[in-house]
Amino acid sequence: MVPPPVPTRLTVNGQEHRLELDPRVSVLDALRDRLGVTSVKKGCDHGQCGACTVIADGRRILSCLALAVSYDGAEVTTAEGLGTVEDLGEVQEAFVERDALQCGYCTPGQICSAEGMLTEAREGMPSHVTSDVSAQGPVRLTAEEIRERMSGNLCRCGAYDHILAAITDVARARGLV
Ligand code: FES
């Protein structure tokens, strides 16, 4: 039996949308199929590749694993919300400067994930490689920290060294290196 649709409100890149959604629909499918936000990519659809990463209420999430109805009322930011072609966001600009992409399929997810991890580091959230998890204040983003924190975002083209360079540039500019 098909479950009845559930009214769901999502604010995407500052624009509010009121949807009637099957409760099984993911944030990813709501964004792509209902709202036409196509920077968000369906890679594995199993939470393993990170291509679908978006920022929801300030935290990066894997949108393929998130049910849209459970994000009712959330503020969602995708790569489109982080800058425009004429006015790139800081991370986007760094990716261009450092040539941190090849085919580009993983790039919107990489950029959302980078924004999310920079916020997490600034707020002092430790990772698996943070040596002192009891330390207060922002986490210093070494190459090891950045690699670990971005390890959920796969790049089949292998642009990892350039992605690392781009994120390091932004981390340095934000006083996190
Ligand atoms: Fe092609 Fe990352 S740039 S998958």
Fold and architecture overview:
This protein is α+β, with helices and mostly antiparallel strands. It has 2 domains: 6-81, Ubiquitin-like (UB roll) (Roll), CATH 3.10.20.30; 84-173, Orthogonal Bundle (DNA polymerase, domain 1). The chain is built from 5 helices and 5 strands, in the order ββαβββαααα. It has a 5-stranded mixed sheet, with helices on both faces. Strand 1 (6-12) and strand 2 (15-21) form a beta hairpin. Helix 2 (90-97) packs across helix 5 (160-173). The N and C termini lie far apart (54 Å). The mean pLDDT is 97. It binds FE2/S2 (inorganic) cluster. Residues 101-107, 155-157, 159 line the site of FE2/S2 (inorganic) cluster.
Summary tags:
177 residues, alpha+beta, Ubiquitin-like (UB roll), DNA polymerase, domain 1, 5-stranded mixed beta sheet, globular, binds FE2/S2 (inorganic) cluster
Element pattern in H and E: EEHEEEHHHH
Uncertain segments are none
Number of structurally distinct domains: 2
Mean pLDDT, as a whole number? 97
Q: What is the CATH superfamily label of the largest domain?
A: [2Fe-2S]-binding domain
Number of beta strands: 5
- Tell me about the largest β-sheet: 5 strands, mixed
Quick overview of this protein structure:
This protein has 177 residues and is α+β, with helices and mostly antiparallel strands. The chain is built from five helices and five strands, in the order ββαβββαααα.
Task: Outline the fold blueprint.
Elements: E1 6-12, E2 15-21, H1 27-34, E3 53-56, E4 59-62, E5 75-77, H2 90-97, H3 107-122, H4 143-149, H5 160-173
Parallel strand pairs: 1-5
Antiparallel strand pairs: 1-2, 3-4, 3-5
Helix pairs in contact: 2-5
FE2/S2 (inorganic) cluster binds next to loops.
